[in-house]
Automatic annotation (TrEMBL), chain A:
UniProt-listed SUPFAM superfamilies: Rnp2-like
Protein name from the UniProt record: Ribonuclease P protein component 2
Record Gene3D superfamilies: Ribonuclease P, Pop5 subunit
Enzyme Commission number, as recorded: 3.1.26.5
The encoding gene: rnp2
Catalyzed reactions per annotation: Endonucleolytic cleavage of RNA, removing 5'-extranucleotides from tRNA precursor
Family as reported in the entry's similarity comment: Belongs to the eukaryotic/archaeal RNase P protein component 2 family.
Residues in coiled coil: none
GO biological process: tRNA 5'-leader removal
Source organism phylogeny: Archaea, Methanobacteriati, Methanobacteriota, Stenosarchaea group, Halobacteria
Quaternary structure note: Consists of a catalytic RNA component and at least 4-5 protein subunits.
Entry's Gene Ontology molecular function annotations: ribonuclease P activity
Known role: Part of ribonuclease P, a protein complex that generates mature tRNA molecules by cleaving their 5'-ends.
Superkingdom of the organism of origin: Archaea
TrEMBL record, chain B:
Protein name: Ribonuclease P protein component 3
Enzyme Commission code(s) on record: 3.1.26.5
Gene: rnp3
Function: Part of ribonuclease P, a protein complex that generates mature tRNA molecules by cleaving their 5'-ends.
GO cellular component, one term: ribonuclease P complex
Pfam families for the chain: RNase_P_p30
MF terms (GO), sorted A to Z: ribonuclease P activity
UniProt enzyme class: hydrolase
Subcellular location: Cytoplasm
């Protein structure tokens, strides 16, 4: 099909999204996309989410940290921001989510906001609250294994 | 803008991690609501480390008004900010009628309701009413719908009487924190005025600053403070 004349093409904005989760979380592209669509559908309704036109363009996630580029229709950015903020878990793994920034092209979005991973994580024994625990360390953040779950700590808490 | 959080062991994240995350998200401060294993004396170190204000607070979750009253009396002197968890009608009523309380949190928690009488009392006693966006962000289905309709009702009453309010996502871990812009966007979708929500986030700071001044040695009573005015020889 012949492509649309320029003034009739939809205009898009590209949202850079930062993700965070516990180190054992298994967040994949499919799961995140589903969470995003359900979040938009529940918050904005069918008409609203069709208007916002959310689409996941790129996604990467490893060791409890990830990032994604989401396409949004120009003028529906606030709706999209709200829908993205309502993603609280992906496949039963709780996730922290934040919008790093918004660009007019995919390339600008990637150059400006992507590739900020704090580096690979390592496992280490740490002293936390007067006890020896195992922690997954990524930069300044320490996810300390306590019992069956994790406690989110920072370098400040580790003696 | 400030955000009020639950820290380990009450939540899953330590004060320092909350502070680090909130600073990255663009908050100016965090209010640490409850039971933390960290000594409040370290809060100023954490504040310095992450460049964000850390306010020590307590959240009193009592079964009835007698217990709540006792807890408020004993814990008020030790904390900058005192919150009381609402829930049933008696507790909500008690909280808004007690000027020593700063914030009534989760007034729609259990069976509790909020009406014009409570709104007027809250306004007269300067007790802030919390708008908890936690269920809006994290619950689904009927629970979320009920939370949204409770928030709407509460908003209509509170704005009509111009009672003071605070806004929070009620995070128990750093993963549940949301940046202020995102929180405002969600609230806007739920029918709130964005500027009003931002005021609610700023209100935590105003309460903290007012109480810090009151707890400082120079404060005698409202309008009266001890200054450094030397008598000049006459």
């Amino acid at each position: 099909m012949k492509h649309l004349p320029k003034h009739l093409r939809p205009r898009w904005r590209y949202v850079a999204v930062g993700l965070e989760a516990w180190p054992d979380a298994d967040v994949d592209r499919r799961g995140f996309q589903r969470a995003l669509w359900y979040g938009a559908g529940n918050l904005l309704g069918d008409t609203g989410s069709a208007d916002a036109g959310l689409k996941l363009l790129s996604f990467s996630f490893s060791d409890g940290e990830g990032e994604a580029v989401v396409r949004v229709r120009h003028g529906h950015l606030d709706d999209a921001r709200a829908a993205i903020a309502c993603v609280s878990e992906v496949d039963d793994d709780p996730v922290g989510i934040r919008i790093r920034g918004v660009s007019g092209t995919v390339r600008a979005c990637e150059e400006r906001y992507m590739g900020r991973a704090a580096g690979s994580s390592t496992q280490r024994d740490v002293a936390f609250e007067d006890a020896d625990q195992t922690a997954v360390v990524r930069g300044d953040v320490y996810d300390v294994r306590v019992g069956s779950g994790y406690v989110g700590a920072a370098a400040f808490d580790i003696e | 803008m400030y955000e009020a959080v639950h820290a380990h062991p009450d939540g899953e994240t330590t004060v320092a991690r909350h502070a680090a995350t909130a600073a990255r998200y663009g908050y100016d401060g965090v209010v640490v609501r409850t039971g933390t294993s960290a000594d409040p004396a370290t809060y100023s170190d954490i504040a310095e480390e992450y460049g964000i204000d850390v306010v020590d607070a307590v959240e009193i979750d009592a079964g009835d008004r007698t217990a709540a009253s006792g807890a408020v009396g004993s814990r008020r002197p030790d904390h900058t900010l005192v919150c009381v968890v609402g829930g049933d009608d008696g507790l909500n009523r008690y909280a808004v009628e007690e000027p020593r309380i700063d914030v009534l949190v989760r007034p729609n928690g259990d069976s509790g309701g909020f009406n014009h009488v409570l709104a007027k009392a809250a306004r007269d006693n300067g007790v802030h009413v919390e708008f908890d966006f936690g269920p809006v962000l994290r619950a689904t289905g009927g629970k979320r719908v009920r939370a949204l309709s409770d928030l709407r009702k509460l908003r209509e009453i509170v704005t009509y009487y111009d009672a003071p309010h605070v806004v929070s996502a009620n995070a128990t871990s750093h993963l549940e924190l949301r940046p202020p812009r995102e929180l405002v966007a969600v609230a806007e979708r739920a029918g709130f005025d964005p500027e009003w929500v931002r005021d609610g986030l700023r209100a935590w700071r105003e309460i903290a600053e007012r109480n810090r001044e009151r707890r400082s040695g120079a404060f005698i009573e409202p309008g009266v403070r001890r200054g450094r005015h030397e008598e000049t020889g006459r």
